[in-house]
Specification:
The structure is a single chain. The protein starts with 7 loop residues before the first helix and ends in a 5-residue tail after the last helix. Helix 3 packs across helix 6, helix 4 crosses helix 6 and helix 7 packs across helix 15. Helix content is about 50%, strand content about 15%. The protein folds into three domains: about 180 residues, Porin chaperone SurA, peptide-binding domain (Triger factor/SurA peptide-binding fold); about 120 residues, Chitinase A, domain 3, CATH 3.10.50.40; about 100 residues, Chitinase A, domain 3, CATH 3.10.50. The protein is of the alpha+beta class.
Length: about 450
């Protein structure tokens, strides 16, 4: 199903439609032809492959969204103003991360951030109300083993998917610290950058482009925009230092426990938002530090193999990967499942380590480089590996169960809609209804298309 995404931001990027038209309405909430067209263009920008009847699908989704939202209001489902503002702030942050700064977002959109939030607020509230209604409709929907089997038995044999090999992989990572003299060298280098910047011999932007070890920001001269409350996204040392700076001020080099040394300059401040530039230098570790870490992890591995500690407990005790605390020591796919395919592994070095590793075994400590370019040492645990096979109840019960439950929830929502639609004032444009068979049931509730 195509995800409905008719946002003010998308509309602002789309070409203006000279002639607009009301395609439908639920109560006093209307759906414009431009809404549907902008949603289609939004999906195309994301690279989605759209079916021929994409406009019909999006139009119906918009009708359903408005019915759900109105029913949520009838039922007084709670969606607070704070939740709406948090959602809007999250959207703004995603746009800023995509385009590099608030100014870049405003340039692309042709509107200020505040205008974008104001334009998006009614739709965000409607979406959140509709989501709350959906959750209420399916909150008591469960699935039994008998229903799972019945669901799978109804799947035509030639439609049963073939699954590629999946693995469950755990890891314990250690990131050794650089030698003290290396850290001192990096610190002194950054003091020199600061001296040149303050003397006017080099701009902060040029320093970031030339020296920063952060590939995500160096090309734009280290420019970023941050919010004081984004504590999950930014290093706490970085945030606390940045928000102590005056506009135009450059910090002393500060050491982060997660990354390395930062040099930060404040370009602009507005409440809890700040426009900053930064240089990140990561003190390199040598083979000496890596070998010391290997010895430590070899001891941990021996404790696990010897039964003195479980892999999970060892990961929580020794791993220096912060995600372990929140998500556990296993590699996750985009859906949060611990079952991953080879192409979903975080790096090629892991693929190489897995070669020849048997299920239930632990690798020897090996070096690797993470996504931030930081070198470390890890041991890998291959908990399970499935062979490529056709989906079946014995090997894939959990997947089939999820599919069956999703189907049951969708049917529950369909049944709910069939009962509720007649209680709403729904109008659908006659021409649109004639072109979209899926809209006939809405026409049937009020045969007064306009």
């Amino acid at each position: 199903m195509i995800a409905l995404s008719i946002t003010a931001f998308a509309q602002s990027q789309s070409q203006k439609i000279v002639v607009d038209k009301i395609l439908g309405a639920v109560g006093d909430r209307i759906i414009l032809q431009s809404d549907v067209q902008n949603a289609i263009e939004d999906e195309e920008r994301r690279g989605s492959t759209l079916p021929a009847n994409a406009a019909c699908i999006i139009f119906e989704q918009s009708l359903i969204q408005k019915i759900m939202a109105l029913q949520a209001q009838r039922d007084s489902l709670p969606v607070s103003d704070n939740e709406i503002e948090a959602n809007l702030d999250m959207r703004v942050r995603s746009w800023v991360m995509q385009f590099g700064s608030e100014q870049a977002v405003e340039d692309v959109a042709g509107k200020t951030i505040y205008q974008l939030k104001d334009d998006s607020r009614p739709l965000v509230k409607e979406n959140m109300l509709a989501d709350a209604m959906r959750r209420k409709i399916v909150e008591n929907v469960h699935i039994t083993p008998t229903e799972v089997k019945t669901f799978f038995d109804k799947v035509p044999t030639d439609s049963i998917p073939f699954l590629e090999s999946e693995l469950e992989i755990g890891q314990i990572n250690i990131y050794p610290k650089a030698a003290k003299e290396v850290e001192e060298y990096i610190y002194n280098e950054m003091l020199n950058y600061r001296k040149q910047i303050e003397a006017g011999n080099m701009s902060f932007s040029d320093a970031a482009k030339k020296y920063s070890d952060d590939p995500s920001s160096k090309e734009r001269g280290g420019l970023i925009e941050v919010n004081r409350n984004d504590k999950d996204q930014w290093d706490p040392v970085f945030l606390s230092t940045a928000f102590r700076l005056k506009v135009g001020e450059t910090s002393m080099p500060v050491k982060s426990s997660k990354f390395g040394y930062f040099l930060i300059q404040c370009e602009n401040r507005r409440g809890d938002n700040a426009k900053l530039r930064y240089v990140l230098r990561v003190p390199p570790v040598t083979e000496t530090e890596l070998n010391i870490a290997k010895v430590k992890l070899d001891t941990v591995r021996n404790e696990i193999v010897g039964g003195k500690i479980s892999f999970k407990d060892a990961a929580y005790k020794y791993s220096e990967d912060e995600s372990v605390k929140s998500y556990g020591p296993f590699v996750l796919n985009q859906n949060g499942s611990t079952y991953v395919t080879i192409d979903q592994l975080p790096d090629k070095e892991m693929v190489k380590t897995l070669n020849g590793l048997k299920v239930g075994n632990y690798s020897q400590p090996t070096t690797f480089t993470n996504e931030q370019g930081k070198r470390g040492v890890r041991i890998i645990y291959l908990k399970s590996r499935t062979e490529p096979h056709k989906m079946n109840l014995n090997d894939d019960y959990s997947k089939i169960s999820e599919m069956a439950l999703s189907t049951k929830k969708n049917q529950t929502i369909e049944d709910w809609l069939d009962k509720k639609i007649p209680s709403f004032y729904v109008l659908v444009d006659k021409e649109a209804a004639a072109q979209c068979p899926n809209l006939q049931k809405y026409q049937a509730t009020n045969n007064r298309g306009f």
